[in-house]
């Protein structure tokens, strides 16, 4: 047995345990998993398919899918609270990112110091040119995506998907939704005296 350990560069204790019939650590982990290998592969393929089409699934949605697979054989069982984290760690082509519902450039414009300086400049311009409040208008446009209410964590592939919707921006992982989703755009115009144009 000593010659075999040297020939194949295997620790002696590992070879000893195999000869005594002990299962490998890899097989023990598989036996302890809630879902069988084919179910995990099917789940992985479904997550990848959703991600490639721009519908990266949220973490609760993936857990729900896993529970549905598990309950086909064991109706009263469900995956544990750490199952999803461990499953993502085993599948190194997946990672958790944030679903982007808010434009990053717009968020940067919420700096109070920048806004304060802008309003000072506005006030000095109004004073300098003697502009009346009825002649001051603000027009703004905003848009939001149907079905995207809050920023949520989703599962996506570590490499960009074929559709190219995944990207990393400003140090925070983001997933952009595809451009073929429905958007609502609102344009408003209000003057400083409070009169508003219909939206």
Brief characterization of the structure:
The protein is of the alpha+beta class.
Model description:
This protein is α+β, with helices and mostly antiparallel strands and 199 residues long. The protein folds into two domains: 1-32, no CATH class; 33-191, no CATH class. 42% of the residues lie in helices and 19% in strands. It is built from eight helices and six strands; from the N terminus they run ααααααβααβββββ. The strands form two sheets. It has a four-stranded mixed sheet. Strands 2-6 form a two-stranded antiparallel ribbon. α4 runs antiparallel to α5. The longest helix has 18 residues, at 112-129. Residues 161-174 have low confidence and may be disordered.
The average pLDDT score comes to 77
> How many extended strands?
6
Count of spatially separate domains: 2
Integer-rounded radius of gyration: 28 Å
Shape summary: elongated
How would you describe this structure in keywords?
199 residues; 42% helix; alpha+beta; 6 strands; two-stranded antiparallel ribbon; 19% strand
Task: Please write out the topology.
Elements lengths: L1 H7 L3 H8 L5 H8 L4 H16 L6 H13 L11 H8 L3 E6 L4 H5 L3 H18 L7 E9 L7 E5 L8 E4 L2 E4 L7 E9 L8
Parallel strand pairs: 1-5
Antiparallel strand pairs: 1-3, 2-6, 4-5
Helix pairs in contact: 4-5
């Amino acid at each position: 047995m000593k010659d075999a350990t040297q020939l194949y560069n295997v620790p002696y204790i590992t070879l000893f345990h195999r000869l005594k019939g002990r299962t490998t650590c890899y097989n023990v982990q598989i036996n302890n998993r809630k879902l069988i290998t084919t179910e995990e592969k099917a789940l992985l393929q479904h997550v990848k398919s959703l991600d490639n089409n721009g519908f990266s699934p949220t973490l609760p949605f993936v857990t729900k899918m896993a529970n549905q697979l598990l309950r086909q054989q064991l109706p009263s069982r469900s995956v544990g609270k750490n199952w999803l984290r461990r499953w993502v760690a085993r599948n190194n082509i997946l990672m958790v990112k944030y679903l982007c519902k808010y434009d990053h450039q717009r968020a940067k414009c919420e700096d109070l110091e920048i806004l304060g300086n802008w309003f000072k400049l506005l006030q000095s311009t109004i004073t300098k040119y003697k502009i009346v409040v009825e002649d001051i208008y603000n027009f703004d446009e905003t848009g939001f995506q149907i079905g995207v209410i809050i920023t949520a964590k989703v599962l996506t592939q570590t490499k960009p998907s074929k559709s190219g919707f995944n990207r990393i921006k400003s140090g925070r992982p983001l997933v952009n939704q595809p451009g073929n989703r429905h958007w609502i755009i609102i344009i408003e115009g209000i003057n400083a005296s409070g009169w508003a144009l219909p939206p």
